[in-house]
Design brief:
Chain lengths: 160, 257
């Protein structure tokens, strides 16, 4: 579990859009995982099992908070990256920009983008984690790609 | 004459992601050669994936350390029924169920596959520990003695003279309490940073010899004295664990170490 924890926390950031909420969600997920440890099938993937659990907890939390999802109604924060003085400073600016744009996506799109493009899960695996049909994963990714590409083209136009 | 096909954004996305099947991939690649509009549509779906992954990878390094469980926040404080809601309650229930199974299977029995759920559960608990969890925990000798005295009182077994096993550094002793049964957990950090825990619970009158096994990818050593079950868990190298377990076992049966 310690090996999975940083990724679980990062997924929690992607789910909630906020670091402070990610802290709570990741911790709650660990507790739930301990509680359900006897249900974990040895030989299956601990990361996917915990990600699915985090996803369920977060959706329940949203329901109980009566926060409507998907319409940008969940407050998201600018996610600051560690300020690394590396030669790739320009890359870092681009990375920060992309990260914040992804964070502004509707939740459902953001989750799909994270699982497929950051974690590298296949459509099928991402669908299983999010407990949705593969077709839905595809349509979310297509919508996210379209919006991100348009946003970035816009900003380049303005910059240029 | 060619048949222009109108691909959906989903089709094009699957193509870009390498998730399109062979037919779709061939169709798109074929049409791309003669359809500039299709190239434009693909470009309109192109996003900088590498910076995206880099950004999130940078975030990975920012992850906080694995949090301690609520019960772990107060060393040697018996029966903490805190207001942590379902988390602690559910956890306690899980342990209780595990103990019930352990009582049936017999603590210290040869490790069957799968492992008895009690050992599996303690293992899950232990797997939360990292070097970072315990690295900065550095009790003074007086604090160590106070914690050991407190867990001794809960357990009804004097562990204040617990020996130092070679290579293990004492970090914390605490009591978890389940259905009135104290489960003592004494946490150590091995010199190489491996978290190791000695767990002791009241058990039946039968002695059981030292028995090595595995749970959650960690090595486990178990034995029973009349009245108590012992479990030492941690790391993936049975050799040091066996030596450490032998030290504690000899102490537990009053042998000279």
């Amino acid at each position: 579990m310690p090996a999975v924890f940083p990724r679980l926390w990062r997924y929690s950031v992607a789910l909630t859009g906020r670091r402070d909420w990610a802290d709570d969600l990741a911790q709650t997920t660990c507790l739930r995982a301990l509680d359900k440890a006897d249900q974990f099938e040895a030989g299956t993937h601990l990361d996917r099992w915990m990600f699915r659990m985090a996803q369920r907890i977060w959706l329940n939390e949203l329901r109980s908070r009566k926060v409507r999802t998907g319409g940008g109604l969940v407050p998201v924060e600018e996610i600051e990256l560690p300020d690394k003085k590396t030669p790739g400073a320009e890359t870092n600016i681009l990375a920060r920009d992309v990260l914040n744009r992804v964070n502004e996506l509707p939740e459902a799109q953001r989750h799909s983008v994270f699982l497929v493009y950051v974690e590298g899960y296949s459509y099928k695996e991402a669908a299983e984690i999010m407990e949705i049909p593969i077709g839905t994963v595809m349509s979310r990714l297509a919508a996210a790609r379209k919006r991100l590409a348009a946003d970035m083209a816009d900003s380049q136009d303005h910059a240029g | 004459m060619t048949t222009e096909h109108r691909f959906s954004d989903e089709d094009l996305t699957a193509f870009l992601d390498g998730e399109a099947d062979d037919t779709l991939t061939a169709d798109i690649a074929d049409q791309l050669e003669r359809d500039p509009d299709l190239a434009d549509r693909l470009a309109a779906l192109d996003i900088p994936l590498v910076p995206l992954a880099e950004a999130y990878n940078a975030l990975l390094a920012e992850a906080p350390p694995m949090p301690e469980l609520p019960e772990m926040t107060r060393p040697a404080d018996p029966v903490r029924r805190t207001g942590w809601g379902w988390g602690v309650g559910g956890f306690a229930t899980g342990i209780a169920a595990g103990l019930a199974v352990a009582a049936f299977v017999g603590f210290g029995a040869p490790p069957p596959a799968p492992a008895p759920s009690w050992a599996a559960f303690v293992a899950s608990y232990q797997s939360l520990y990292t070097e970072a969890t315990l690295r900065d925990v550095d009790p003074t000798p007086a604090e160590t003695q106070a914690q050991l005295a407190a867990v001794s009182a809960s357990l009804g077994l004097d562990v204040t003279d617990l020996p130092n096993a070679d290579g293990l550094n004492f970090k914390r002793a605490q009591v978890l309490n389940f259905r009135g049964k104290p489960l003592v957990q004494i946490a150590y950090l091995r010199n190489d940073g491996t978290p190791v825990a000695l767990c002791i619970i009241p058990a039946g009158p039968d002695e059981k010899p030292l028995n090595m096994g595995q749970a959650q990818g960690m090595d486990v050593a178990r034995w029973n004295t009349p009245g108590y079950g012992f479990l030492l868990i941690g790391g993936a190298d049975p050799a040091p664990l066996a030596a450490e377990a032998d030290t504690f076992r000899k102490w537990s049966v009053g042998e000279t170490i």
